[in-house]
Each structure stands twice: as structure tokens, then as C-alpha cells.
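Hi W., the nicotinamide-adenine-dinucleotide complex you wanted:
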Amino acid sequence: MGRVQDKKVVITGGAQGLGACFGRMLAAEGARVALTDVNLEGAEKTAAAINEEFEGAAVAIKHDVTSKDDWAHALGTASEFLGGIDTLINNAGIGVAGSIETETYENWRRTQEIDVDSIFIGTQLAMPYLKDNQPGSIINISSVAGLIADGMMLSYNAAKAAVWMMSKSIALHCARSGYDIRCNSVHPVFTRTPIIDPLIAMGGGGDEGEKRLVQQIPWKRLAEPEDVGYCILYLASDESRYITAAEFKIDGGITAQ
Ligand SMILES: NC(=O)c1ccc[n+]([C@@H]2O[C@H](COP(=O)([O-])OP(=O)(O)OC[C@H]3O[C@@H](n4cnc5c(N)ncnc54)[C@H](O)[C@@H]3O)[C@@H](O)[C@H]2O)c1
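Structure:
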């Protein structure tokens, strides 16, 4: 038996980076996973790679998380494939750089839409599935940027802080309603995925750009996707059955400073 044996998991933004890593790690521990992404081709490649190792464990679904219709379709398709949904990982996200003087309203809105509004729309639509398949777990991927600020991360800071507090509100509602559905937020530091390429480029690119990011982290290395994945595995499993409304910092100590 795996740690998440027969769990029925939806992962948004599952084509690459953290979402793809979560899919593989969960499948390796017995879960079945629906990888949804606006990038269908990427999600299909990732699902095929997972299925090569763990036959029938993964499916890819086209899904723009800003669209309510897409959410309804993605959840319905995922539920058919998985036989229900008991775990929702709200992982899709973007990060754009900009200060209060340089950020555009379009970038601000787009960031809130993809990183925050999507979690409201999607989790609301997922509630009936989660209620039908208890115990359930909602895992929202925030960031250390939801806890500590940077002058150049205006929209992202605001979005990820909203995800942090929204997770607690969802958790309290579920607990007080008597649902066996937990909700927690996860806050990674710079993690080796394509999303940090622009940050590495801003620092001069290559090893030099990476060094500038690493210097900020007490643990003195970037996080690897698996470092975050082990936390996801715990939160998706029944091992975390009493954990709700909590925040998990996978941050090499950066927020302690
Ligand atoms: N990598 C890091 O350093 C880091 C740190 C903290 C938090 N995070 C968060 O982790 C999550 C995953 O990021 P990642 O590092 O894997 O980045 P990534 O860019 O590698 O992957 C993000 C995925 O989300 C998908 N996506 C983007 N917009 C979408 C939309 N509208 N609908 C559906 N899918 C969409 C992309 O196609 C992509 O597959 C994000 O929420 C990000 O903010 C990442």
C-alpha cells in the first residue's frame, strides 16, 4: 500500500514544474492523478511519462483555471476518470515582476485572476465532489512571497498572501460544517522550475543569476521540486488527518530572518 493509495487527485498546472513533480510522486505512492493545464500538450506528455511507470495512474485535461466553464468540464472529466475527487491541488500560477511604480493594471489583474480568483472559482465548484469523497484535502500552493514582501513583486505578493488567508477561511468553514475536508497552504521558496528563469535572468543569468537567489536562502541552495513534493505527499495522505488551516513553509529558513 502506498502512502496515498487510491487517492483521487486533481492537480492544476500539472504540465510541468511543481505540478508535474507532484503528479509523479503521488502516483508512485498509489494515487491516481488528473493533470489539468492550459498547456494540454505538456500535460499529455507528463501524463504519458507517469503512465509509463504507473499504468493508468494519470490523465491530462485541458483547463484554463480562469474559466468557470473550463473548471466545470475539468472537474467532471477528472471525476469520471478517477471515480470521484478527494484531493484538489490548486497549483497553477504565474509570477510577474513589477513595483508599485512600474506594474501595469493588466499584469496586476492577470496575476489575481490566475493565482487567486481561480482558487475561489475552482474550490467552490469542487466542494460537492470533495463532500462526496471524504476524507478530503485541499492544498493551495502559495509562496514565501505570500508571507514576506519584495519591492518588485507587488502583484505576486498580494496574490499569494490572499491564497494564504483564503486557505484558512476554507479550512474553518469545512471544520465548522463537520466536513472531513482539510485545507492548507504551501509556501515554497525559489524552486528549480521554469517559473524562476526570469528571476535568474534578472540576476545576470546562468550560475551568477542562480547565486543571487541562493544568497537569500539560509539553507544555501534552491529548493528542488521534490522538496516541495514531500510536503504535498503528506498533506494528500491521511497522515495529515488532523492538520488544517496551517501553512507549510518549504523555504530553507528564508522567512525566519
Ligand atoms: N518555482 C518556484 O520558485 C515557486 C516558488 C513559490 C511558489 N511557486 C508556485 O508554485 C506553483 C507552480 O509553479 P511552477 O514553479 O511549477 O511554475 P511553472 O511555470 O513551471 O508551472 C506553472 C504551470 O501552470 C500552468 N498555468 C499557467 N497559467 C494557467 C492557467 N490560466 N490555467 C491553467 N494552467 C496554467 C502553466 O502552463 C504551467 O504548466 C505556482 O502557483 C507558483 O506561483 C513556485
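The chain has a mean pLDDT of 98.

W.
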